[in-house]
Amino acid sequence: MKQTNKPAAKLSQTGIAVALAFLAAATAQADQRITKPVIDTDQLIVKYRNSGLSAQQLNSPSADTAIATMQAQRMSQVQGALQQFGAIGTLKRTTGLGSQVIKLDKRRSLAEVAAMAAKIAKDDPNVEYAEPDRIKLPLAAAPNDTNWSKQWDLQNSSIGINVPNAWDLSTGSGVNVAVIDTGYRPHADLAANILPGYDMINDTAVAVDGNARDSDASDPGDWQAQGECPAPNNGAHNSSWHGTHVAGTIAAVTNNGVGVAGIAPNAKIVPVRVLGKCGGYDSDIADAMIWASGGTVAGLPANPNKARVLNLSLGGSGPCDSTSQAAINTARANGAVVVIAAGNDSMDVSDASPANCSGVVAVAAYDKTGGRSYYSNFGNLITLAAPGGAQNSANDPNGILSTLNSGTKGPGSDNYIYYQGTSMAAPHVAGVAALMLAAKPSATPDEVIAALKSSARPFVASCQGCGAGMLDAYGAVKAIKGDIIDPPATGETESNNTLATANAVTAPKTLSATMGSSTDVDYFSVQLPAGRTLQAVMTPNASSDYDLYVYNSAGSQIGSSENGKGSADTVSVANTGSSTLTRYVKVVYYSGGTGSTNGKYSLKLSW
């Protein structure tokens, strides 16, 4: 989508101050990036709308003199603007675009040069634009973390979540992510991004550390002996250091020459310990969500590091309980995005709590094929899928590599281990949510969820019941900023003949579809964010007449178009509410061709 900007020459009286503030903010943000340092510059570029001379002057014998005089007049105006900043400029050259390169007497910050440019444009209405002549550096192909090549899940690829591209836009600065889990170990590749958290475990037998709730969220280990815990969790296992693995995926220190890279390397982790020996209680987990998001929990000090994202890589069976739902509602009201692992039982997520609660981001897992991991839960309540891996043995590189600890019971030394699970998929989404909120701090939880869905990429392998698509870090950050990425055309997947089997489509998207027979009906489901208007445009082949309908989530028709043979049908429906709504688009045969050759049509969905 093209964006129209006002000419710089039409800046208001506050334009200089605004430009200075904006560039200062941009500079501060960019200074946190991994591959895009902001460099002072000693040049600026000024582009004029025209030569300032008439055709007669330009064609006269004294044209060279007239041009030189005009350039001198313009440079005099430029010098007047620069003097207000204590700067001196000289005309260096004219570019291939006809713009003028002005050399300054010394290097200055990008923000200051931007303010100079704004002043030059404001003072001369014939200036089309003026801007700093910024300095670029060779881009690092990847962070220098030694295990980066093993992090298939983060790469710019068909199965990776495109983190390097996202880092060009955001690295998570200023966003806290609560990891509500087993606590943390001060791993050398993670410790710099750990903030004070809380041990929320009340039961000392579960806590293992000899006391109940306190401000020490470190993980003493969650090992258990055979039969020590109630069935079915009564088997023996070593300490998992689960929270440390999850936290490393989100915010491991990046570009430090060792270990792994985190998705949001400039975000911070607020560890909240709720899982110990034999698991953790809903009541502790609920308090953790409230406290972490900035809410009040009786008897506890306020959280000085309010989290905008909560990651819960935990769960059990059964419906969403009232305690969990109330805590989620409170966290959302406090502005937090609640990300929850879907579960690892290869069943419908409707029976997996708290992933089946309302208002959460329920995350399924896919493996290195791009298809659903064999263990991942699935179903209509899944929001989207992220890398979780699929391993054939312990520490199989087909899993997700992250920070861990070598201790079998109590803590040992730092190490890195591959794990698999929706527990590993969820922090991918939590990390991306941190990138999104750093890019747009005012975003609401519903806006983040809508942007995650709308930017998700089509699956490259079978992943039925995996939500809106594959997590795309770059697309999600672009989406939350309001930038539209033109997606590739994709096709439909049969059978999609009912509302229940509708193809989930992440708009904006154009699909290539087929009317298989005269009785074929094609349904597509779209998540329509609050305040947006869905536009569906169906274009049949020239010899066919197909019709277009739109339904709400209850199955009631809310729009239709029934134009004739070869004519496109268009339906627009608005979401005037305050939350994202599901809309179903239906294409129906009326007359004409069918099949793979004669039944082709396209469906464009946008807002």
UniProtKB/TrEMBL annotation:
SUPFAM superfamilies: Collagen-binding domain, Subtilisin-like. The active site is at D181 (charge relay system), H242 (charge relay system), S423 (charge relay system). Its EC number is 3.4.-.-. Residues 172-459 form the Peptidase S8/S53 domain. It comes from the Bacteria. PROSITE patterns: SUBTILASE, SUBTILASE_HIS, SUBTILASE_SER. GO terms for molecular function: hydrolase activity. Residues 1-30 form the signal peptide. Keywords: Hydrolase, Protease, Serine protease, Signal. It is an enzyme of class 3 (hydrolase). Belongs to the peptidase S8 family. This is S8 family serine peptidase.
